[in-house]
């Protein structure tokens, strides 16, 4: 198993997802998170190693050997960002099925609303060490 904890798996072809990763990078100066696209060999390996369903195409956070998906993953990430983003954790008071249904609507329309890429995001040289290959 990969020894790094706090791994974010994301859809590397999705503009919304790539924008979210850029957002996290800017608000994570302590480098709490590392990243891998779901399409990468590392992403596929982690899906297998952590028992995540193989057909997953959603935002995943792996933290201390446990994985979170959809709205739970997003809220756990916010909890560790600098600034007022930490306060979004109060949204956990909303029942997960309701949170995830809203998340699913956005996820199903993400390519239509935000577009997609022909290839996965290439990290900048200063962020390359944050991406698992």
From TrEMBL:
Matching InterPro entries: DCC1-like, DCC_oxidoreductase
Record organism: Terrihalobacillus insolitus
Protein name per its UniProtKB record: Thiol-disulfide oxidoreductase DCC family protein
Lineage: superkingdom: Bacteria
Molecular function in Gene Ontology: protein-disulfide reductase activity
Record lineage: Bacteria, Bacillati, Bacillota, Bacilli, Bacillales
Matches recorded under Pfam families: DCC1-like
